[in-house]
Amino acid sequence: MSSDYISGLEGCALNRYRRKLELCGLSDCPYRVPADSWQNDPRKWPPVDFGNIDVYLLETPGVHTREAMRNYKALDSYKLLESGWVQTVRHIIPDDTTLTVLRADVTPSFRVNEPPHPPWAAVTQRGDVVAAHCDCKAGLGESCSHIGGLLYKVEMIVRVGGARDPACTDVLCTWNEASMKGVQPARVADINFYGDKPKEKVVANNAPARRADPQPVSSDGFEDFLVSLLAASNPVMPVGLSLFGSTSSNFAPKKAVVPSQKVPPGLRSLYRGVEGFKSLDKVYSAATQTMKLDHKDVERIGNVTKLQSKSLVWYEQRAGRITSSVSHSVLRTSTTKPSQYLIKSICCDRPSKLKTTAIMWGNEHEQVARQQDAEGAVSSAHSDLKVNNCGLLIKREQPFLAASPDALLACSCHGMGALEIKCPFKFCEMSVEQMCKEKDSCLDQNLELKESPVLHPNATSMCVTGASHFLVWLPTAGHVCSVFPHQEYALTSGPASTAFREGHIRPELLFRKVELGTEQSEHGNKQGHCSCGSADSVPMLGCDDKKCTHQWFHWACVGITKEPRSKTWYCDKCKSSNTKRKRQRRQ
N or C terminus of the chain: which is more exposed, having fewer CB within 10 Å? Predict the structure, then answer.
């Protein structure tokens, strides 16, 4: 700035400025010092810190208060530093004093095209600020925002290490260089907020991709490539090589393995469609003859289906037969209006999609239970006992009855029998004795099988095999029960199963009314019974309200894990409807 600044002051302002120079021990105004005398060397600066700045700004008249200094980053002086308006800081050490005078040009934040203000500050060697001045209107008060911006920049440079000896990789005075020069005002839409490198990346990403023209490969080179690929792919070869003449010979198809044992067709082969309605007597007579099996047919089906759920033949032969898993539902359903879902599940040959935690846990531990407990505990009560895998067992006299026990027992003392294994997930952390104390346990206090629906799969197995054992397996121990013929079940299951088969199963096998949708339920629910709208799956529970819009529900959807003990059960919607009806009647 002009060196005649002091000559422009008058009266009180001039006297105050001269006393300030005398306080600092300066014989001449800092504005009269030549420009080449000011040095740019932060290593010679005093160690100014926040404490020195706070003491000076609070003790001098101005806008700086204790509350304002607590949030110093919100001050205008600190914002000048953050915005880059404080230019390069330079210093001089006059001969007639020990103080260091610091000076920098500070651009006005709202008048960027006007000349910058040149504040200066005199600092002791310990960092104490003795006096400061600025040529702005508030500068005579020694604590304007420009002075604060100068002091905050000095503190920042000292704090980050710019005032110490630089390392070999540092550049002298880098921290002190001005970060912004020659700023021109412009509209926000015209301001470039990015540097050159980000713009280069954007241009490179938006540039159209260049694709090289494919070069043709010679036939010899391509053949060599196929041979090298085949050699590197052994023992597993990519099937794509079978399309080329030079390598296709390695993919000669193998001869189909024809099963040595031919099984009779499943009951779904009885389907006659709409044409069957023209001669029902002939169709029923032919179906009865087709269902008959001899001893060899039953044996072949049992041998071929030993993998059970992993065998497609097992699903095919189960379709249309009342198995142990659905025997209890057959006895409970109405004979005049049976469950459409039950008919569909019996006559369907597709695998079930139901995979609950309890089912998966039981399937995973079934083999462990058989090896740990079945072969040990059962063998102690039998001689020459053999535990074999079991397929689908069909009763020859009643071919619509079948069972798939978990294992087949054979001994010299009792002959052949079935073994049912139950791995209850709910009691997996209990002992057998603790499980027997639970209400929903299948065993009573005497470790005997309770009179419950659990008996029905074993009873069906006994109808087919003649004897049955029941194994309850837990990780801690297992318990084997001998299941004896259930007279009441035998008396009721036979006629009921026969009536259900003649009245509903055989017509469904012949005409598939339920499966093809030619016979809908009275409520027109075509997509599924449960309120969730998903496909039907086992197990399901029926609502006893005739006006229910769904009739059947998944156990998981209604929040139950076992079959209710009560003879009647109503869904939540029907319960609320019945309650409202009762209230209306009372009123």
Answer: C
Which residue in 92, 89, 91, 127 sits closest to 106, CA to CA? 89
**CATH fold for the domain made of 357-489:** Lambda Exonuclease; Chain A (3.90.320)
- Euclidean distance between CA atoms 508 and 169, whole angstroms: 89
Give mean pLDDT in consecutive 10-residue pieces for the chain, a chain of 587 residues: 71 85 85 88 88 84 67 78 87 86 86 83 91 78 80 88 57 58 76 69 65 75 82 75 78 60 81 58 66 84 85 87 82 82 85 73 78 63 77 84 82 76 83 83 77 55 63 77 58 68 82 69 47 62 80 78 80 83 74
Pairing of strands 386-388, 407-411: antiparallel
Q: What are the extents of the domains in the chain?
A: 6-159, 357-489, 523-586
Q: In the numeric block, which tokens belong to residue 135?
A: 């040529």
d(CA 284, CA 286): 5
Residues linked to residue 388 through DSSP beta bridges, in sequence order: 408
CATH of 523-586, one of 3.30.1330.40, 3.30.40.10, 3.40.50.2300, 3.40.50.10240: 3.30.40.10
Q: Could you tell me if 117 and 36 are in contact, meaning their C-beta atoms sit under 8 angstroms apart? A: no
Three-state DSSP class for 263? coil
Nearest-angstrom CA–CA distance, 574 and 580? 10
Query: Would you call 581 exposed, middle or buried from its count of C-beta atoms within 10 A (0-12, 13-18, 19+)?
Result: exposed
| Domains 357-489 and 523-586 alike in fold | no
The span from the CA of 405 to the CA of 412, in Å, is 20
Residue 272's pLDDT is what? 74
- Rounded-to-integer distance, Cα 338 and Cα 361, Å: 32
Under a CB-based contact definition with an 8 Å cutoff, are residues 81 and 135 in contact? no
33 vs 29: CA distance, rounded Å:
7
**Helix (H) / strand (E) containing 130:** strand 129-133
Residue 440: predicted pLDDT: 78
The whole-number pLDDT of residue 522 equals 39
Query: Considering just the CA atoms, what is the radius of gyration of the chain in Å?
Result: 48
Place of tokens 């069906």: 460
Which residues in 427-578 belong to E strands, given as ranges? 468-473, 478-483, 540-542, 552-554
